[in-house]
Amino acid sequence: MSGNGTGRRGRAVVFDYGNVLYAWESHGALAGRRPARVWEEFVEEGEFSRWNEMADAGVPFGDILAALGRAHPDRPDWADLLADYWRHFPDTLTGPIPGVGAVVDDLLDAGVRLYALTNFNHELFAAFGRPRVPQLERFSGIVVSGEERLTKPDPAVFRVLLERYGLRGADALFVDDAPANVAAAASLGMDTHLFRGAGRLRADLTDRGLLDAPVD
Fold first, then answer.
1. DSSP state, 1?
2. 132-151, pLDDT tens digit by residue?
3. Per-residue CA distances from 203 to 80, 106, 188, 196, 197 (Å)
4. Which of 141, 164, 159, 182 lies closest to 12 in space, CA to CA?
5. Measured between alpha carbons, how far is 79 from 51 in angstroms, rounded to an integer?
6. 12-50: string of b/e by CB count within 10 Å (b at 16+)?
7. pLDDT digit string (tens) for 148-166?
8. Helix (H, G, I), strand (E, B), or coil: what is residue 134?
9. pTM of the prediction?
10. How far apart are CA 215 and CA 141, in angstroms?
């Protein structure tokens, strides 16, 4: 692919949000409010990932708390902890991933179409996630798992993205930090990049002809 931009108009890059565009750390919600060991116990023994995935799939918060209570009737404190987590959710978003904003700006300036595909509760994304990444307003489309009631790595949510925006898998590069999500995208014929930092991402995008090499 040429580096002069002529091969870029038919290409797209699809970004994950959490820990690719913007850092998410679950501990942040309770930091300074509860002892770290209390949160770590809940994460390890209270099935936090299960309840978090339900929230990402758009299940109402009240239904999730009820399910948690049924699963662990001897630990009502865990329901209180999860409710506090959602109450202080903005503190889990700890800052932009270094260097990625510049990569996104360069892609936009190069005329590459950008999309986002994120596992995120739709209410939390609208209130707190989207406003923290202003470049999202220039993206060509965003698919939020909570709105679709589907979460990565289910191939169905990738198909929603491809079909809604008329993308061919072979013309879309998917960038995510989770190997399972990258594997799911690859199974649908998408190009993939396992995110491990902005430097590696920029190098890959340059090798693919989506960004120009720097002029020394």
1. -
2. 999 999 999 999 999 999 99
3. 45, 13, 24, 12, 10
4. 141
5. 10
6. bbbbbbbebbbbbebebbbeeebeeeebebbeeebbbee
7. 999 999 999 999 999 999 9
8. helix
9. 0.93
10. 32
